[in-house]
């Protein structure tokens, strides 16, 4: 059975993504999946969306202790057969 954790990212998205996709923890990226976006470009996409939001609203997105993004972790038993699917 899978275990799913959802962790808020509150400080810096870039540092969080760098930590999340670290080669030592992800079997050199083999255990990282992102829908429609290469993980190494995720930070730039977050920044682009944040800048677009700020330009439209005329204000800063980040407030103290506000959640910027979520990191979703799925863990599986080593006995389970897991594969990646692109939908």
Question: What do these coordinates show?
Answer:
The relative contact order is 0.27. With 87 residues, this protein is α+β, with helices and mostly antiparallel strands. The model has no long low-confidence stretch (mean pLDDT 80). Strands 1-2 form a two-stranded antiparallel sheet. The chain contains 2 helices and 2 strands.
Topology diagram in text:
Layout lengths: L2 E7 L3 H8 L21 H16 L11 E7 L12
Antiparallel strand pairs: 1-2
Q: Enumerate how many helices there are, as a single number.
A: 2
Structural class: alpha+beta
In whole angstroms, the N-to-C terminal distance is 22 Å
Low-confidence stretches: none
SS elements, strand count = 2
Average pLDDT works out at: 80
Major sheet characteristics: 2 strands, antiparallel
Fraction of residues in β-strands: 15-25%
SSE pattern, N- to C-terminal:
EHHE
Helix content: 25-40%
Cα gyration radius (Å): 15 Å
Q: In order across it, which strands form the biggest sheet?
A: 1-2
* Morphology call: elongated
